[in-house]
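Spend some time on the protein that follows and explain the fold to me:
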Amino acid sequence: MEELLTWVMEKFPSLEPEIAWNQPMFTDHATYIIGFSVAKHHLSVAPERAGLDHFKTEIEQAGYDYTKELVRMKWNTPIDFTLIEKMIELYILDKKDYSTLWRK
């Protein structure tokens, strides 16, 4: 998790790291971009639902399990930084005119 959070902060220095609901997340001009959480068997990546729908094929090709709200990356599999980067870039662009934390 530490490696991933450090990577996000270095790759996207304009994003604001925050802790909300006891989990690390990143915002851009006070709008949610992506969040992460830790479970016993996996790391969860939580983009908004629109991002999951957009990247469904890539998520499946990476071999990750996913739900409507998150992607589960098992601890014994490598993190697909390219996929996470694409998700973050999509949200930054897609939400550039948002003024609220969540989509309405």
Q: What stands out?
A: The chain has one domain: 2-94. The chain has a mean pLDDT of 92. The helical segments are 2-11, 49-54, 56-61, 81-94. The domain at 2-94 is CATH 3.90.1150.200 (Aspartate Aminotransferase, domain 1).
